[in-house]
Amino acid sequence: MTRSSAVGAVPSPDVLAEAASSFGMLASPVRLHIMWILASGECDVSGLAEQVGGALPAVSQHLAKLKLAGLVRSRREGHRQVYLVDDPHLVSLVQSMINHLTGPTPGQGNRRGRAV
Length: 116
Known about the structure:
Layout: E1 4-5, E2 8-9, H1 13-25, H2 29-40, E3 43-44, H3 45-52, H4 56-68, E4 73-77, E5 80-84, H5 88-102, E6 104-105, E7 109-110
Antiparallel strand pairs: 1-2, 3-5, 4-5, 6-7
Helix pairs in contact: 2-5, 3-4
Protein backbone atom coordinates (compact mmCIF):
# COMPACT_ATOMS: atom_id res chain seq x y z
CA MET A 1 0.00 0.00 0.00
CA THR A 2 1.41 3.41 -0.99
CA ARG A 3 0.62 6.41 1.19
CA SER A 4 0.39 9.89 -0.25
CA SER A 5 1.79 13.08 1.19
CA ALA A 6 1.48 16.72 0.23
CA VAL A 7 4.20 16.18 -2.40
CA GLY A 8 2.97 12.89 -3.85
CA ALA A 9 3.31 9.18 -3.22
CA VAL A 10 5.86 8.07 -0.63
CA PRO A 11 8.93 6.76 -2.47
CA SER A 12 10.07 3.19 -2.02
CA PRO A 13 13.08 2.41 0.18
CA ASP A 14 15.12 1.66 -2.96
CA VAL A 15 14.35 5.08 -4.44
CA LEU A 16 15.21 6.78 -1.14
CA ALA A 17 18.51 4.89 -0.96
CA GLU A 18 19.39 5.90 -4.53
CA ALA A 19 18.49 9.53 -3.82
CA ALA A 20 20.63 9.51 -0.66
CA SER A 21 23.53 8.09 -2.64
CA SER A 22 23.18 10.83 -5.27
CA PHE A 23 23.01 13.53 -2.60
CA GLY A 24 26.10 11.97 -1.00
CA MET A 25 27.95 12.41 -4.28
CA LEU A 26 27.03 16.08 -4.24
CA ALA A 27 28.16 16.52 -0.62
CA SER A 28 31.71 17.30 -1.76
CA PRO A 29 32.19 21.03 -2.45
CA VAL A 30 34.48 20.23 -5.40
CA ARG A 31 31.97 17.82 -6.97
CA LEU A 32 29.17 20.31 -6.41
CA HIS A 33 31.29 23.01 -8.05
CA ILE A 34 31.92 20.68 -11.01
CA MET A 35 28.19 20.04 -11.30
CA TRP A 36 27.49 23.79 -11.16
CA ILE A 37 29.94 24.40 -14.02
CA LEU A 38 28.58 21.50 -16.08
CA ALA A 39 25.02 22.74 -15.51
CA SER A 40 26.05 25.69 -17.70
CA GLY A 41 27.47 23.53 -20.47
CA GLU A 42 30.05 20.98 -21.52
CA CYS A 43 33.66 21.18 -20.37
CA ASP A 44 36.79 19.05 -20.49
CA VAL A 45 38.80 18.06 -17.43
CA SER A 46 41.45 20.76 -18.00
CA GLY A 47 38.82 23.49 -18.11
CA LEU A 48 37.09 22.10 -15.03
CA ALA A 49 40.36 21.87 -13.10
CA GLU A 50 41.12 25.49 -13.97
CA GLN A 51 37.65 26.69 -12.95
CA VAL A 52 37.50 24.81 -9.64
CA GLY A 53 41.13 25.55 -8.83
CA GLY A 54 42.00 21.89 -8.40
CA ALA A 55 44.75 19.62 -9.62
CA LEU A 56 43.97 17.76 -12.83
CA PRO A 57 44.27 14.25 -11.27
CA ALA A 58 41.97 15.20 -8.37
CA VAL A 59 39.32 16.68 -10.67
CA SER A 60 39.61 13.63 -12.90
CA GLN A 61 38.90 11.38 -9.89
CA HIS A 62 35.86 13.46 -8.93
CA LEU A 63 34.59 13.18 -12.50
CA ALA A 64 35.08 9.41 -12.44
CA LYS A 65 32.96 9.17 -9.27
CA LEU A 66 30.25 11.42 -10.70
CA LYS A 67 30.24 9.39 -13.92
CA LEU A 68 30.07 6.08 -12.05
CA ALA A 69 27.11 7.42 -10.07
CA GLY A 70 25.38 8.37 -13.33
CA LEU A 71 25.36 12.09 -12.53
CA VAL A 72 27.56 13.11 -15.47
CA ARG A 73 28.44 11.53 -18.76
CA SER A 74 31.26 12.07 -21.20
CA ARG A 75 31.84 11.98 -24.90
CA ARG A 76 34.94 12.02 -27.01
CA GLU A 77 35.67 15.18 -28.97
CA GLY A 78 38.85 14.66 -30.95
CA HIS A 79 41.60 13.85 -28.47
CA ARG A 80 39.79 15.12 -25.43
CA GLN A 81 37.00 13.85 -23.22
CA VAL A 82 34.16 16.34 -22.72
CA TYR A 83 31.89 16.06 -19.67
CA LEU A 84 28.26 17.09 -19.42
CA VAL A 85 25.12 16.82 -17.35
CA ASP A 86 22.20 16.03 -19.61
CA ASP A 87 19.52 15.48 -16.97
CA PRO A 88 17.49 18.71 -16.71
CA HIS A 89 16.14 17.65 -13.31
CA LEU A 90 19.65 17.34 -11.90
CA VAL A 91 20.70 20.68 -13.41
CA SER A 92 17.62 22.29 -11.87
CA LEU A 93 18.30 20.70 -8.47
CA VAL A 94 21.89 21.98 -8.33
CA GLN A 95 20.94 25.45 -9.56
CA SER A 96 18.00 25.64 -7.15
CA MET A 97 20.14 24.78 -4.13
CA ILE A 98 22.84 27.31 -5.00
CA ASN A 99 20.25 29.98 -5.77
CA HIS A 100 18.43 29.17 -2.54
CA LEU A 101 21.61 29.74 -0.53
CA THR A 102 22.75 32.85 -2.37
CA GLY A 103 19.44 34.49 -3.30
CA PRO A 104 17.85 37.20 -1.22
CA THR A 105 15.13 36.54 1.31
CA PRO A 106 12.71 39.48 1.52
CA GLY A 107 13.83 41.75 4.35
CA GLN A 108 16.63 39.44 5.53
CA GLY A 109 19.46 39.57 3.00
CA ASN A 110 20.37 36.16 1.64
CA ARG A 111 19.82 32.72 3.21
CA ARG A 112 23.24 32.77 4.86
CA GLY A 113 22.32 35.87 6.85
CA ARG A 114 24.61 38.23 4.94
CA ALA A 115 23.25 41.50 3.70
CA VAL A 116 22.89 41.75 -0.06
